[in-house]
Amino acid sequence: MTWEYAPAPESRDIANLKANYRMFLDGEFVEGAGEPLKTVNPATEEVLAEVSTASPADVDRAVKAAKRAQDRVWGRMPGAERAKYIFRVARMIAERARELAVLESLDNGKPIKESRDTDVPTAAAHFFYHAGWADKLDHAGFGPDPRPVGVAGQVIPWNFPLLMAAWKIAPALACGNTVVLKPAETTPLTALVLAEIIQQAELPPGVVNILPGAGDIGAELVNHPGVNKVAFTGSTEVGKIIQRSLAGTGKKLTLELGGKAANIVFDDAPIDQAVEGIVNGIFFNQGHVCCAGSRLLVQESVAEEVLDKLRKRVATLRIGDPLDKNTDVGAINSREQLAKIQELVASGEDEGAVRWTSPCPVPDKGFFFAPTVFANVSQAMRIAREEIFGPVLSVLTFRTPDEAVAKANNTPYGLSAGVWTEKGSRILLMADRLRAGVVWANTFNRFDPTAPFGGYQESGFGREGGRAGLEAYLDV
Ligand code: NAP
Ligand code: MG
Protein backbone atom coordinates (compact mmCIF):
# COMPACT_ATOMS: atom_id res chain seq x y z
CA MET A 1 0.00 0.00 0.00
CA THR A 2 1.30 3.47 -0.75
CA TRP A 3 0.28 6.55 1.15
CA GLU A 4 -0.33 9.91 -0.41
CA TYR A 5 0.60 12.70 1.95
CA ALA A 6 -0.93 16.13 1.66
CA PRO A 7 1.53 18.92 2.45
CA ALA A 8 1.64 19.76 6.16
CA PRO A 9 3.95 22.75 6.36
CA GLU A 10 4.77 24.52 9.59
CA SER A 11 4.41 28.28 9.13
CA ARG A 12 7.71 30.05 8.61
CA ASP A 13 6.28 33.17 10.29
CA ILE A 14 6.80 31.41 13.60
CA ALA A 15 10.56 31.86 13.15
CA ASN A 16 10.27 35.66 13.58
CA LEU A 17 13.01 35.94 11.01
CA LYS A 18 14.74 39.33 10.94
CA ALA A 19 16.58 40.83 7.98
CA ASN A 20 19.67 41.56 10.09
CA TYR A 21 21.32 39.89 13.06
CA ARG A 22 24.12 41.35 15.13
CA MET A 23 26.71 39.69 17.32
CA PHE A 24 26.35 39.53 21.10
CA LEU A 25 29.24 41.06 23.03
CA ASP A 26 29.40 42.10 26.67
CA GLY A 27 25.62 41.96 27.08
CA GLU A 28 24.78 44.03 23.98
CA PHE A 29 23.92 43.29 20.38
CA VAL A 30 26.53 45.17 18.37
CA GLU A 31 27.72 45.47 14.80
CA GLY A 32 30.89 43.44 14.29
CA ALA A 33 33.80 44.91 12.35
CA GLY A 34 34.07 41.82 10.12
CA GLU A 35 32.54 41.43 6.65
CA PRO A 36 28.80 40.64 7.12
CA LEU A 37 27.76 37.16 6.00
CA LYS A 38 24.56 36.06 4.32
CA THR A 39 23.02 32.88 5.67
CA VAL A 40 20.89 30.90 3.23
CA ASN A 41 18.08 28.42 3.46
CA PRO A 42 19.66 25.29 1.96
CA ALA A 43 16.26 23.95 0.90
CA THR A 44 15.56 26.93 -1.38
CA GLU A 45 18.93 28.69 -1.76
CA GLU A 46 17.28 32.00 -0.76
CA VAL A 47 19.13 34.39 1.54
CA LEU A 48 17.49 34.35 4.97
CA ALA A 49 19.33 37.17 6.70
CA GLU A 50 22.48 39.19 6.86
CA VAL A 51 24.60 38.57 9.93
CA SER A 52 27.37 40.78 11.19
CA THR A 53 30.65 39.04 11.96
CA ALA A 54 33.51 39.59 14.34
CA SER A 55 36.95 40.97 13.56
CA PRO A 56 40.06 39.94 15.52
CA ALA A 57 39.63 43.14 17.59
CA ASP A 58 36.05 42.07 18.42
CA VAL A 59 37.36 38.69 19.58
CA ASP A 60 39.78 40.50 21.85
CA ARG A 61 37.00 42.69 23.29
CA ALA A 62 34.78 39.67 23.86
CA VAL A 63 37.49 37.66 25.62
CA LYS A 64 38.28 40.65 27.84
CA ALA A 65 34.59 41.14 28.64
CA ALA A 66 34.32 37.45 29.49
CA LYS A 67 37.37 37.67 31.74
CA ARG A 68 35.98 40.69 33.60
CA ALA A 69 32.63 38.98 34.06
CA GLN A 70 34.33 35.82 35.29
CA ASP A 71 36.59 37.62 37.77
CA ARG A 72 34.09 40.08 39.13
CA VAL A 73 30.71 38.38 39.01
CA TRP A 74 30.16 34.91 37.65
CA GLY A 75 33.16 33.10 39.13
CA ARG A 76 32.39 34.46 42.60
CA MET A 77 28.67 33.91 42.56
CA PRO A 78 27.42 31.06 44.76
CA GLY A 79 26.46 28.03 42.67
CA ALA A 80 22.87 28.21 43.87
CA GLU A 81 22.61 31.71 42.38
CA ARG A 82 24.21 30.73 39.07
CA ALA A 83 21.71 27.87 38.90
CA LYS A 84 18.78 30.29 38.94
CA TYR A 85 20.05 32.01 35.78
CA ILE A 86 20.72 28.73 34.00
CA PHE A 87 17.28 27.35 34.91
CA ARG A 88 15.79 30.57 33.55
CA VAL A 89 17.57 30.08 30.22
CA ALA A 90 16.30 26.50 30.09
CA ARG A 91 12.71 27.59 30.67
CA MET A 92 12.93 30.35 28.10
CA ILE A 93 14.25 27.92 25.46
CA ALA A 94 11.27 25.70 26.21
CA GLU A 95 8.88 28.67 25.97
CA ARG A 96 10.29 29.68 22.58
CA ALA A 97 10.66 26.10 21.36
CA ARG A 98 8.46 26.45 18.30
CA GLU A 99 10.17 29.60 17.10
CA LEU A 100 13.61 28.06 17.61
CA ALA A 101 12.62 24.85 15.82
CA VAL A 102 11.32 26.64 12.73
CA LEU A 103 14.34 28.96 12.62
CA GLU A 104 16.69 25.98 12.93
CA SER A 105 14.99 24.13 10.09
CA LEU A 106 15.13 27.25 7.90
CA ASP A 107 18.81 27.92 8.52
CA ASN A 108 20.09 24.36 8.65
CA GLY A 109 17.72 22.39 6.38
CA LYS A 110 16.87 19.68 8.91
CA PRO A 111 13.27 18.38 9.04
CA ILE A 112 11.01 20.25 11.43
CA LYS A 113 10.09 17.02 13.20
CA GLU A 114 13.75 16.65 14.20
CA SER A 115 14.38 20.26 15.26
CA ARG A 116 11.06 20.20 17.13
CA ASP A 117 11.44 16.79 18.80
CA THR A 118 15.21 16.49 19.24
CA ASP A 119 17.34 19.62 18.82
CA VAL A 120 15.31 22.13 20.80
CA PRO A 121 14.11 19.93 23.67
CA THR A 122 17.59 18.46 24.10
CA ALA A 123 19.08 21.97 24.13
CA ALA A 124 16.68 22.93 26.94
CA ALA A 125 17.52 19.66 28.71
CA HIS A 126 21.22 20.54 28.74
CA PHE A 127 20.51 23.81 30.54
CA PHE A 128 18.11 22.13 32.99
CA TYR A 129 20.57 19.34 33.73
CA HIS A 130 23.59 21.56 34.23
CA ALA A 131 21.67 24.12 36.28
CA GLY A 132 21.17 21.28 38.72
CA TRP A 133 24.92 20.75 39.05
CA ALA A 134 25.84 24.39 39.75
CA ASP A 135 25.41 24.15 43.54
CA LYS A 136 26.59 20.54 43.85
CA LEU A 137 30.08 20.72 42.37
CA ASP A 138 31.71 20.17 45.78
CA HIS A 139 30.03 16.76 45.80
CA ALA A 140 30.78 15.77 42.21
CA GLY A 141 33.87 13.76 43.11
CA PHE A 142 36.45 16.36 42.05
CA GLY A 143 37.65 17.21 45.56
CA PRO A 144 36.11 19.53 48.13
CA ASP A 145 36.40 22.82 46.25
CA PRO A 146 36.75 22.56 42.47
CA ARG A 147 37.36 25.96 40.83
CA PRO A 148 36.22 27.28 37.45
CA VAL A 149 38.85 27.32 34.71
CA GLY A 150 38.13 30.91 33.55
CA VAL A 151 37.16 31.91 30.01
CA ALA A 152 36.00 29.17 27.64
CA GLY A 153 36.51 29.67 23.89
CA GLN A 154 34.06 27.44 22.06
CA VAL A 155 33.73 26.68 18.34
CA ILE A 156 30.82 24.66 16.99
CA PRO A 157 29.71 23.13 13.67
CA TRP A 158 26.57 23.50 11.60
CA ASN A 159 24.92 20.11 12.07
CA PHE A 160 23.16 20.83 15.42
CA PRO A 161 23.55 24.61 15.73
CA LEU A 162 21.40 25.34 18.78
CA LEU A 163 22.01 22.00 20.47
CA MET A 164 25.80 22.31 20.12
CA ALA A 165 25.65 25.83 21.57
CA ALA A 166 23.65 24.56 24.56
CA TRP A 167 25.88 21.51 24.93
CA LYS A 168 28.91 23.82 25.18
CA ILE A 169 27.54 26.81 27.12
CA ALA A 170 25.50 25.05 29.83
CA PRO A 171 28.32 23.08 31.54
CA ALA A 172 30.73 26.03 31.24
CA LEU A 173 28.29 28.33 33.05
CA ALA A 174 27.34 25.76 35.67
CA CYS A 175 31.01 25.45 36.63
CA GLY A 176 31.47 29.23 36.96
CA ASN A 177 33.22 29.91 33.66
CA THR A 178 32.31 32.56 31.13
CA VAL A 179 32.06 31.94 27.40
CA VAL A 180 32.94 33.26 23.97
CA LEU A 181 31.32 31.07 21.32
CA LYS A 182 31.67 31.06 17.55
CA PRO A 183 28.80 29.41 15.68
CA ALA A 184 29.31 27.91 12.21
CA GLU A 185 29.25 30.27 9.26
CA THR A 186 26.27 28.61 7.57
CA THR A 187 24.05 28.37 10.69
CA PRO A 188 24.45 31.37 13.00
CA LEU A 189 20.79 32.26 13.62
CA THR A 190 19.59 30.09 16.51
CA ALA A 191 22.74 30.83 18.53
CA LEU A 192 21.88 34.53 18.22
CA VAL A 193 18.32 33.90 19.41
CA LEU A 194 19.86 32.01 22.30
CA ALA A 195 21.89 35.19 22.95
CA GLU A 196 18.60 37.10 23.07
CA ILE A 197 17.29 34.63 25.63
CA ILE A 198 20.49 34.99 27.65
CA GLN A 199 20.08 38.76 27.59
CA GLN A 200 16.41 38.53 28.64
CA ALA A 201 17.35 36.12 31.41
CA GLU A 202 19.55 38.95 32.67
CA LEU A 203 22.80 37.07 32.80
CA PRO A 204 25.46 39.61 33.75
CA PRO A 205 27.09 41.27 30.71
CA GLY A 206 30.11 39.38 29.38
CA VAL A 207 29.14 35.99 30.85
CA VAL A 208 28.18 34.76 27.37
CA ASN A 209 29.41 36.32 24.11
CA ILE A 210 28.40 34.99 20.70
CA LEU A 211 30.52 36.02 17.73
CA PRO A 212 29.60 34.82 14.24
CA GLY A 213 32.42 34.56 11.74
CA ALA A 214 34.35 32.21 9.53
CA GLY A 215 37.11 29.75 10.43
CA ASP A 216 39.70 32.50 10.84
CA ILE A 217 37.67 33.99 13.69
CA GLY A 218 37.48 30.52 15.25
CA ALA A 219 41.27 30.35 15.03
CA GLU A 220 41.57 33.86 16.50
CA LEU A 221 39.38 32.81 19.42
CA VAL A 222 41.06 29.52 20.30
CA ASN A 223 44.51 31.15 20.07
CA HIS A 224 43.63 34.21 22.15
CA PRO A 225 45.90 34.24 25.22
CA GLY A 226 42.98 35.23 27.49
CA VAL A 227 41.15 31.96 26.78
CA ASN A 228 41.76 29.28 29.41
CA LYS A 229 39.77 26.42 27.96
CA VAL A 230 38.96 25.50 24.37
CA ALA A 231 36.06 23.27 23.37
CA PHE A 232 35.80 22.40 19.69
CA THR A 233 33.35 20.27 17.74
CA GLY A 234 33.92 19.83 14.02
CA SER A 235 36.21 18.12 11.57
CA THR A 236 39.25 16.05 12.53
CA GLU A 237 41.30 18.21 10.18
CA VAL A 238 40.58 21.45 12.05
CA GLY A 239 40.78 19.62 15.39
CA LYS A 240 44.36 18.65 14.59
CA ILE A 241 45.25 22.25 13.68
CA ILE A 242 43.83 23.44 17.00
CA GLN A 243 45.61 20.75 18.98
CA ARG A 244 48.93 21.69 17.38
CA SER A 245 48.49 25.41 17.97
CA LEU A 246 47.49 24.92 21.61
CA ALA A 247 50.34 22.56 22.49
CA GLY A 248 52.42 24.02 25.31
CA THR A 249 50.03 26.90 26.07
CA GLY A 250 48.58 25.26 29.18
CA LYS A 251 45.03 25.74 27.87
CA LYS A 252 42.61 22.95 28.61
CA LEU A 253 41.25 21.36 25.43
CA THR A 254 38.43 19.02 24.46
CA LEU A 255 37.92 17.92 20.86
CA GLU A 256 34.79 16.28 19.51
CA LEU A 257 35.57 15.33 15.93
CA GLY A 258 34.38 13.04 13.19
CA GLY A 259 33.34 9.41 13.20
CA LYS A 260 32.67 6.36 11.05
CA ALA A 261 30.55 4.31 13.41
CA ALA A 262 29.83 0.63 12.94
CA ASN A 263 26.24 -0.41 13.42
CA ILE A 264 26.46 -4.19 13.94
CA VAL A 265 23.51 -6.48 13.29
CA PHE A 266 23.74 -10.11 14.49
CA ASP A 267 21.58 -12.86 13.08
CA ASP A 268 19.56 -13.16 16.29
CA ALA A 269 18.55 -9.49 16.23
CA PRO A 270 14.90 -8.51 15.84
CA ILE A 271 15.30 -7.62 12.16
CA ASP A 272 12.43 -5.17 11.73
CA GLN A 273 13.50 -3.25 14.79
CA ALA A 274 17.12 -3.28 13.60
CA VAL A 275 16.05 -1.89 10.22
CA GLU A 276 14.41 1.05 12.01
CA GLY A 277 17.62 1.54 13.97
CA ILE A 278 19.76 1.43 10.84
CA VAL A 279 17.52 4.05 9.19
CA ASN A 280 17.63 6.27 12.26
CA GLY A 281 21.38 5.70 12.55
CA ILE A 282 22.27 7.03 9.11
CA PHE A 283 19.36 9.10 7.78
CA PHE A 284 18.64 11.13 10.93
CA ASN A 285 19.69 14.74 10.23
CA GLN A 286 20.61 13.78 6.60
CA GLY A 287 23.51 11.79 8.06
CA HIS A 288 25.14 15.04 9.23
CA VAL A 289 25.90 13.41 12.55
CA CYS A 290 29.39 12.77 13.87
CA CYS A 291 28.18 9.57 15.58
CA ALA A 292 26.04 8.41 12.59
CA GLY A 293 25.89 4.65 12.02
CA SER A 294 27.48 5.03 8.61
CA ARG A 295 29.05 1.54 8.38
CA LEU A 296 26.49 -1.23 8.64
CA LEU A 297 28.07 -4.55 9.60
CA VAL A 298 25.55 -7.30 9.10
CA GLN A 299 25.99 -11.00 9.80
CA GLU A 300 26.23 -12.87 6.51
CA SER A 301 23.37 -15.29 7.20
CA VAL A 302 20.84 -12.46 7.44
CA ALA A 303 22.51 -9.94 5.12
CA GLU A 304 20.15 -10.49 2.21
CA GLU A 305 17.05 -10.25 4.37
CA VAL A 306 18.29 -7.11 6.13
CA LEU A 307 19.27 -5.39 2.89
CA ASP A 308 15.98 -6.27 1.29
CA LYS A 309 13.93 -4.89 4.14
CA LEU A 310 16.20 -1.91 4.46
CA ARG A 311 15.76 -0.83 0.82
CA LYS A 312 12.00 -1.23 1.08
CA ARG A 313 11.93 0.88 4.23
CA VAL A 314 14.29 3.56 2.90
CA ALA A 315 12.20 3.89 -0.26
CA THR A 316 9.34 5.14 1.97
CA LEU A 317 11.37 8.04 3.42
CA ARG A 318 10.08 11.38 2.21
CA ILE A 319 12.68 13.89 1.16
CA GLY A 320 11.92 17.57 0.69
CA ASP A 321 10.69 20.72 2.41
CA PRO A 322 12.24 20.77 5.90
CA LEU A 323 9.24 22.69 7.24
CA ASP A 324 6.80 19.96 6.19
CA LYS A 325 5.90 17.86 9.23
CA ASN A 326 5.88 14.72 7.05
CA THR A 327 9.42 15.20 5.77
CA ASP A 328 11.92 12.54 6.88
CA VAL A 329 15.05 13.77 5.11
CA GLY A 330 15.66 17.48 4.66
CA ALA A 331 18.27 19.50 2.81
CA ILE A 332 22.04 19.12 2.83
CA ASN A 333 23.39 22.09 4.76
CA SER A 334 25.49 23.66 1.99
CA ARG A 335 26.55 23.36 -1.61
CA GLU A 336 30.07 22.47 -0.42
CA GLN A 337 28.80 19.61 1.73
CA LEU A 338 26.63 18.35 -1.15
CA ALA A 339 29.67 18.36 -3.45
CA LYS A 340 31.66 16.41 -0.86
CA ILE A 341 28.93 13.77 -0.62
CA GLN A 342 28.67 13.50 -4.41
CA GLU A 343 32.43 13.08 -4.71
CA LEU A 344 32.57 10.28 -2.13
CA VAL A 345 29.56 8.52 -3.66
CA ALA A 346 31.26 8.64 -7.07
CA SER A 347 34.37 7.09 -5.52
CA GLY A 348 32.22 4.25 -4.12
CA GLU A 349 30.90 3.50 -7.61
CA ASP A 350 34.39 3.70 -9.12
CA GLU A 351 35.79 1.34 -6.52
CA GLY A 352 33.10 -1.25 -7.34
CA ALA A 353 30.54 -1.01 -4.56
CA VAL A 354 26.93 -1.60 -5.59
CA ARG A 355 24.90 1.59 -5.30
CA TRP A 356 21.18 1.75 -4.58
CA THR A 357 19.50 5.15 -4.29
CA SER A 358 15.95 5.65 -3.17
CA PRO A 359 13.61 6.40 -6.08
CA CYS A 360 11.83 9.07 -4.00
CA PRO A 361 11.18 12.38 -5.73
CA VAL A 362 13.79 15.03 -4.94
CA PRO A 363 13.11 18.80 -5.12
CA ASP A 364 14.85 20.45 -8.06
CA LYS A 365 15.81 23.57 -6.12
CA GLY A 366 18.00 23.55 -3.03
CA PHE A 367 20.69 21.11 -1.88
CA PHE A 368 19.27 17.61 -1.68
CA PHE A 369 20.68 14.10 -1.85
CA ALA A 370 18.46 11.03 -1.98
CA PRO A 371 19.09 8.31 0.65
CA THR A 372 21.68 5.90 -0.70
CA VAL A 373 22.83 2.44 0.35
CA PHE A 374 26.04 0.84 -0.90
CA ALA A 375 26.31 -2.97 -0.82
CA ASN A 376 29.41 -5.09 -1.51
CA VAL A 377 31.59 -2.59 0.29
CA SER A 378 35.08 -3.69 1.26
CA GLN A 379 37.12 -2.23 4.08
CA ALA A 380 39.68 -0.59 1.83
CA MET A 381 37.16 1.56 -0.06
CA ARG A 382 36.99 5.26 0.73
CA ILE A 383 33.27 4.97 1.50
CA ALA A 384 34.18 2.49 4.27
CA ARG A 385 36.96 4.61 5.72
CA GLU A 386 36.06 8.29 5.28
CA GLU A 387 33.30 10.20 6.97
CA ILE A 388 30.76 11.06 4.25
CA PHE A 389 28.58 13.17 6.54
CA GLY A 390 25.54 12.65 4.36
CA PRO A 391 22.62 10.22 3.84
CA VAL A 392 24.83 7.42 2.54
CA LEU A 393 25.22 4.01 4.16
CA SER A 394 28.04 1.54 3.45
CA VAL A 395 27.17 -2.11 4.06
CA LEU A 396 29.76 -4.75 4.95
CA THR A 397 29.23 -8.29 6.20
CA PHE A 398 30.83 -10.56 8.82
CA ARG A 399 30.59 -14.19 9.92
CA THR A 400 31.74 -14.31 13.55
CA PRO A 401 31.67 -11.90 16.49
CA ASP A 402 35.49 -11.68 16.32
CA GLU A 403 35.32 -10.60 12.71
CA ALA A 404 32.65 -8.02 13.58
CA VAL A 405 34.87 -6.55 16.29
CA ALA A 406 37.94 -6.51 14.03
CA LYS A 407 36.06 -4.77 11.23
CA ALA A 408 34.28 -2.33 13.54
CA ASN A 409 37.57 -1.29 15.12
CA ASN A 410 39.35 -1.02 11.79
CA THR A 411 38.99 2.76 11.62
CA PRO A 412 41.00 5.76 12.71
CA TYR A 413 37.86 7.04 14.46
CA GLY A 414 36.08 5.79 17.59
CA LEU A 415 33.09 7.88 18.54
CA SER A 416 30.14 5.51 18.64
CA ALA A 417 28.89 2.06 17.70
CA GLY A 418 25.64 0.10 17.71
CA VAL A 419 24.97 -3.55 18.48
CA TRP A 420 21.77 -5.39 17.56
CA THR A 421 21.31 -8.79 19.19
CA GLU A 422 18.92 -10.57 21.50
CA LYS A 423 21.70 -11.78 23.81
CA GLY A 424 22.54 -9.55 26.77
CA SER A 425 25.89 -11.29 27.25
CA ARG A 426 26.86 -10.50 23.66
CA ILE A 427 25.98 -6.83 24.15
CA LEU A 428 28.31 -6.67 27.16
CA LEU A 429 31.09 -8.50 25.33
CA MET A 430 30.83 -6.22 22.31
CA ALA A 431 30.65 -3.06 24.42
CA ASP A 432 33.84 -4.20 26.09
CA ARG A 433 35.69 -4.84 22.86
CA LEU A 434 34.50 -2.00 20.64
CA ARG A 435 36.79 1.02 20.76
CA ALA A 436 34.11 3.68 20.75
CA GLY A 437 33.11 6.33 23.27
CA VAL A 438 29.44 5.40 23.10
CA VAL A 439 27.99 1.95 22.36
CA TRP A 440 24.25 1.75 21.81
CA ALA A 441 22.51 -1.59 22.24
CA ASN A 442 19.34 -2.25 20.22
CA THR A 443 18.96 1.48 19.65
CA PHE A 444 20.94 4.28 18.01
CA ASN A 445 21.49 8.06 18.16
CA ARG A 446 20.19 8.51 21.69
CA PHE A 447 21.28 11.74 23.28
CA ASP A 448 20.89 12.66 26.90
CA PRO A 449 22.65 15.34 28.95
CA THR A 450 23.27 12.88 31.77
CA ALA A 451 25.38 10.57 29.57
CA PRO A 452 29.01 11.38 28.78
CA PHE A 453 29.70 11.68 25.06
CA GLY A 454 33.09 11.70 23.34
CA GLY A 455 35.56 9.71 21.31
CA TYR A 456 38.75 7.74 20.99
CA GLN A 457 41.59 8.25 18.51
CA GLU A 458 40.79 10.66 15.66
CA SER A 459 37.30 11.23 17.04
CA GLY A 460 38.89 13.42 19.70
CA PHE A 461 39.21 13.38 23.47
CA GLY A 462 37.43 14.62 26.54
CA ARG A 463 33.83 13.93 27.47
CA GLU A 464 30.81 16.19 27.29
CA GLY A 465 27.68 15.62 29.34
CA GLY A 466 27.14 13.84 32.61
CA ARG A 467 29.38 14.17 35.64
CA ALA A 468 32.41 13.34 33.49
CA GLY A 469 31.68 16.34 31.27
CA LEU A 470 32.05 18.77 34.17
CA GLU A 471 35.72 17.94 34.56
CA ALA A 472 36.66 19.82 31.38
CA TYR A 473 35.30 23.02 32.92
CA LEU A 474 36.84 22.66 36.37
CA ASP A 475 40.29 23.10 37.78
CA VAL A 476 40.58 19.81 39.66
P1 NAP B 1 34.99 22.45 10.35
O1 NAP B 1 35.64 23.15 9.23
O2 NAP B 1 35.83 21.70 11.30
O3 NAP B 1 34.14 23.55 11.12
C1 NAP B 1 33.73 23.47 12.47
C2 NAP B 1 33.82 24.85 13.09
O4 NAP B 1 35.18 25.27 13.16
C3 NAP B 1 33.10 25.93 12.31
O5 NAP B 1 32.57 26.87 13.20
C4 NAP B 1 34.23 26.51 11.49
O6 NAP B 1 33.96 27.79 11.00
C5 NAP B 1 35.34 26.52 12.50
N1 NAP B 1 36.71 26.55 11.96
C6 NAP B 1 37.14 26.29 10.69
N2 NAP B 1 38.48 26.41 10.63
C7 NAP B 1 38.91 26.73 11.86
C8 NAP B 1 40.21 26.95 12.43
N3 NAP B 1 41.32 26.86 11.72
N4 NAP B 1 40.28 27.24 13.75
C9 NAP B 1 39.18 27.32 14.50
N5 NAP B 1 37.94 27.12 14.03
C10 NAP B 1 37.80 26.82 12.72
O7 NAP B 1 33.89 21.50 9.81
P2 NAP B 1 32.93 21.77 8.56
O8 NAP B 1 33.62 22.50 7.47
O9 NAP B 1 31.71 22.39 9.09
O10 NAP B 1 32.66 20.32 8.10
C11 NAP B 1 33.70 19.55 7.49
C12 NAP B 1 33.61 18.11 7.95
O11 NAP B 1 33.74 18.04 9.37
C13 NAP B 1 32.28 17.45 7.69
O12 NAP B 1 32.17 17.01 6.40
C14 NAP B 1 32.31 16.35 8.70
O13 NAP B 1 33.03 15.28 8.22
C15 NAP B 1 33.01 16.96 9.87
N6 NAP B 1 32.10 17.48 10.89
C16 NAP B 1 32.01 16.85 12.08
C17 NAP B 1 31.13 17.31 13.04
C18 NAP B 1 30.98 16.69 14.35
O14 NAP B 1 29.95 16.87 14.96
N7 NAP B 1 31.96 15.99 14.85
C19 NAP B 1 30.34 18.41 12.78
C20 NAP B 1 30.46 19.06 11.56
C21 NAP B 1 31.35 18.58 10.63
P3 NAP B 1 33.13 27.89 9.61
O15 NAP B 1 31.74 27.58 9.92
O16 NAP B 1 33.32 29.28 9.16
O17 NAP B 1 33.77 26.92 8.66
MG1 MG C 1 22.05 28.72 6.67
TrEMBL record:
Q: Name one GO molecular function term.
A: oxidoreductase activity, acting on the aldehyde or oxo group of donors, NAD or NADP as acceptor
Catalytic residues at E256
Pfam families registered for this protein in UniProt:
Aldedh
Q: What Gene3D superfamilies does this protein's entry cite?
A: Aldehyde Dehydrogenase, Chain A, domain 1, Aldehyde Dehydrogenase, Chain A, domain 2
The answer to whether keyword Oxidoreductase applies is yes
Instruction: Give the record's keywords alphabetically.
Output: Oxidoreductase
Domain Aldehyde dehydrogenase intervals: 29-475
Q: Could you name the domain of life of the organism this protein comes from?
A: Bacteria
Tell me yes or no: is Transmembrane helix among this UniProt entry's keywords: no
Q: Cross-referenced PROSITE patterns, in alphabetical order?
A: ALDEHYDE_DEHYDR_GLU (PS00687)
Q: Which family does it belong to?
A: Belongs to the aldehyde dehydrogenase family.
Name of this protein: Aldehyde dehydrogenase (NAD+)
Q: Give the organism, scientific name.
A: Actinokineospora iranica
